[in-house]
């Protein structure tokens, strides 16, 4: 591109190109590479290309258990034009990896790896990988601490829309099963990592009650990271009961807050619930079994009334299991389903207006 064209105009032209071109543009000059890798460009690019949103699905083959990712365009051609996504080398070294979350076009993966030359006990290291599939760039983030018996690490990830700065929130808590056996309760330890500073720091104030347990089910909406959580309560007879809730973290103020659930959701087994988002609204997905059918209720938060969740629709399907993976931008749930006589799962989309399931990929 001519040097006579102002830099700001060059940035606008680059922003309008497809993601595949950005990979090539990064090799043109140091200036272009710096532009494309910047947080500001990432946010502007995602806003401009929002109408062609892509969804990435993680899966593994039952035979070789190799982890793979495939990308789909979120439109009427969904799952008919999927293509494989190249997984970064950093992600391939992770064991027991999981997708923490996604925000502003970035994915956060988490797992552990072993350091060669160390004893088995001291060789385990935890790592998060921030991955931008559009430009095929990834960054490894060492997660402090080591895996210890009785303790568990839960991460949260989001890109603050105000600061345009990727943030990882690490919560160390006592595993609920170990806590119930040992009767030992330990306060939360919360650490925050921002990509701009490249370091971790401890949050020591405004921490939730130590009896509250965070789960891996999470979603990012605006400047908030939400986790599905439950409070472990001690009954009068010495036993335990739980109360379900949602824990939020404001990435700007760096404060935790509890989002209460209605009684019908708060008082059932926490293993039957997860959270998601529909049309940028907080949603709760409730699972149940009715005879041979699996039932999935989708509840959406009503912003007009505090802590009110309204049922959006109910899915009643004759599968051995169903699990919500998320929603299309038009509000249709994407689900993983398994038949009673098949080991492999299938990817389906439920059409709420028509009341039936379309099987797209298996």
UniProtKB/TrEMBL annotation:
<dbReference type="Pfam" id="PF08268">
    <property type="entry name" value="FBA_3"/>
</dbReference>
<dbReference type="InterPro" id="IPR017451">
    <property type="entry name" value="F-box-assoc_interact_dom"/>
</dbReference>
<dbReference type="InterPro" id="IPR036047">
    <property type="entry name" value="F-box-like_dom_sf"/>
</dbReference>
<dbReference type="InterPro" id="IPR013187">
    <property type="entry name" value="F-box-assoc_dom_typ3"/>
</dbReference>
<dbReference type="InterPro" id="IPR001810">
    <property type="entry name" value="F-box_dom"/>
</dbReference>
<dbReference type="InterPro" id="IPR050796">
    <property type="entry name" value="SCF_F-box_component"/>
</dbReference>
<dbReference type="Pfam" id="PF00646">
    <property type="entry name" value="F-box"/>
</dbReference>
<feature type="domain" description="F-box">
    <location>
        <begin position="1"/>
        <end position="45"/>
    </location>
</feature>
<protein>
    <recommendedName>
        <fullName>F-box domain-containing protein</fullName>
    </recommendedName>
</protein>
